């Protein structure tokens, strides 16, 4: 009976182990929620959405939405050798936007996010297809 | 004591002495860049010894950032607790630093003093120490050129780094911007600081296998002529090249 109980406990532990491992590995979502391109950098998830009338950026920290008003964001767009810097404006919730900015296919975009302490920065690189 | 018992003891003593000489030649401290709490930090030390970099801030002669076209990006160091963090106005492709570690002399008793040979007349060696660091942050568009202030510099020969650890990486070591032979290259300054250095060939190249699927800090050491012979018999230049091979997607 003891052996059966021990085996059962071991099976339960083994069953939980992969779940724990998965939780420890995942920091944030990797699937786009707004139809954009997602980059995961450490704990931070960046989703860049290129629309016909502008660019949107959504930010999450460890899977939680971060209030964009507490942060600052700018992006550098490199397209066919031409480089431009754009400041993104905080919008509602975890959204930043840059109205009227277009990103062409083939462009490389680097988003630089300045965190709440106004000093720490995290960058994400995107290749737009 | 028999002759037989003396020989092994002599050999052991010889081996230990040779080992210590070899170790002193490569056991200089260096500077390198690494990520700390998501931010890029300038570190000082050797192996797992990540020493006090903040107190060495006055020794830092330069810090610089460059974009993919090798144009400078305004970059500075800021003290954040026990760390020196890199602060750039935009995301750099490469960051560099230079630290002058002063002139050191070794006494016949084996003690290192932070003085020139003019103050330590019986010094067995006196050296002027410069530390250089280059960090590849973003993807390279072109091979890294000789960068300002990097008297000794390690550059990957190609712009593309391997994706996986264990793959070969051809490097070139530059001294004053020119390939240099005989620089001692170590493939993993952090995890194998006692490893055997590999010397660069006549064209300044050496090929190593990338050690880590993560942070790699490669080191080159080269002894150049002294520019202050009254104080130092040589100048020891120690350069690091650091980069990260990303882990698999989570």
Short description:
The complex is a heterodimer of chains A (129) and B (250). Chain A is of the alpha+beta class and 129 residues long.
Overview of the structural elements:
The complex is a heterodimer of chains A (129) and B (250). Chain A has 129 residues and is of the alpha+beta class. Chain A has a single domain (29-127), classed as Immunoglobulin-like, CATH 2.60.40. Helices cover 19% and strands 46% of the residues of chain A. Chain A is built from 1 helix and 9 strands, in the order H-E-E-E-E-E-E-E-E-E. Chain A has one helix at 2-25; strands at 37-41, 44-51, 54-61, 64-65, 72-79, 82-90, 95-99, 108-114, 121-127. In chain A, a hairpin with a 4-residue loop joins strand 6 and strand 7. The N and C termini of chain A lie far apart (61 Å). In chain A, 22% of the residues are buried. Residues 8-26 of chain A have low confidence and may be disordered. With 250 residues, chain B is mainly β. Chain B has one domain. Chain B has 1 helix and 18 strands. Chain B has one helix spanning 3-26; strands at 30-36, 39-46, 49-50, 60-66, 72-73, 75-80, 83-88, 94-106, 112-113, 125-136, 152-156, 168-175, 178-179, 184-186, 198-199, 205-209, 215-225, 234-244. In chain B, strands 4, 5, 8, 9, 10, 14, 15, 17 and 18 form a 9-stranded mixed sheet that branches. In chain B, strands 1, 2, 3, 6 and 7 form a 5-stranded antiparallel sheet that branches. In chain B, strands 11, 12, 13 and 16 form a 4-stranded antiparallel sheet that branches. The longest helix of chain B has 24 residues, at 3-26. Chains A and B meet through strand 5 and strand 9 of A and strand 7 of B.
Protein topology:
The complex is a heterodimer of chains A (about 130) and B (about 250).
Chain A (H helix, E strand, L loop, with lengths): L1 H24 L11 E5 L2 E8 L2 E8 L2 E2 L6 E8 L2 E9 L4 E5 L8 E7 L6 E7 L2
Antiparallel strand pairs in A: 1-2, 2-3, 3-4, 3-7, 5-6, 5-8, 6-7, 8-9
Chain B lengths: L2 H24 L3 E7 L2 E8 L2 E2 L9 E7 L5 E2 L1 E6 L2 E6 L5 E13 L5 E2 L11 E12 L15 E5 L11 E8 L2 E2 L4 E3 L11 E2 L5 E5 L5 E11 L8 E11 L6
Parallel strand pairs in B: 10-18
Antiparallel strand pairs in B: 1-2, 2-3, 2-7, 4-5, 4-8, 6-7, 8-9, 8-10, 11-12, 12-13, 12-16, 14-15, 14-17, 17-18
């Amino acid at each position: 009976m003891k052996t059966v109980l021990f085996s059962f406990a071991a099976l339960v532990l083994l069953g939980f182990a992969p779940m724990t491992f998965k939780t420890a590995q995942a920091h944030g979502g990797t699937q786009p929620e707004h139809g954009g391109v997602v980059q995961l950098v450490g704990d931070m998830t960046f989703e860049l959405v290129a629309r016909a009338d502008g660019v949107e950026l959504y930010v999450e920290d460890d899977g939680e939405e971060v209030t964009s008003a507490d942060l600052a964001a700018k992006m550098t767009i490199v397209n066919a050798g031409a480089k431009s810097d754009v400041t993104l404006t905080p919008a509602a919730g975890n959204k930043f936007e840059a109205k009227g900015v277009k990103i062409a296919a083939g462009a490389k975009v680097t988003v630089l996010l300045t965190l709440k302490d106004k000093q720490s920065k995290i960058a994400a690189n995107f290749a737009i297809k | 004591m028999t002759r037989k018992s003396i020989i092994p003891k002599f050999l052991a003593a010889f081996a230990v002495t040779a080992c210590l000489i070899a170790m002193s030649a490569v056991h200089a401290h260096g500077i390198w860049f690494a990520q700390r709490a998501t931010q890029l930090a300038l570190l000082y030390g050797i192996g797992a010894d990540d020493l006090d970099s903040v107190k060495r801030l006055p020794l830092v002669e330069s810090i610089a950032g460059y974009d993919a076209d090798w144009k400078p990006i305004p970059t500075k160091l800021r003290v954040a607790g026990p760390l020196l963090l890199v602060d750039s106005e935009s995301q750099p492709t490469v960051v560099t630093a230079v630290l002058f570690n002063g002139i050191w002399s070794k006494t016949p008793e084996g003690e290192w003093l932070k003085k020139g040979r003019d103050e330590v007349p019986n010094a067995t060696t006196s050296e002027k120490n410069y530390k250089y660091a280059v960090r590849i942050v973003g993807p390279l568009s072109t091979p890294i050129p000789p960068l300002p202030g990097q008297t000794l510099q390690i550059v990957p020969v190609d712009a593309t780094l391997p994706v996986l650890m264990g793959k070969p990486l051809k490097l070139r070591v530059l001294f004053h911007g020119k390939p240099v032979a005989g620089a001692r290259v170590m493939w993993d300054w952090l995890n194998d600081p006692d490893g055997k250095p590999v010397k660069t060939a006549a064209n300044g190249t050496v090929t190593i296998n990338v050690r880590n699927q993560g942070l790699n800090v490669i080191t080159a050491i080269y002894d150049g002529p002294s520019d202050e012979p009254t104080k130092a018999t040589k100048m020891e230049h120690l350069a690091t090249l650091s980069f990260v091979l990303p882990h698999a997607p989570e």
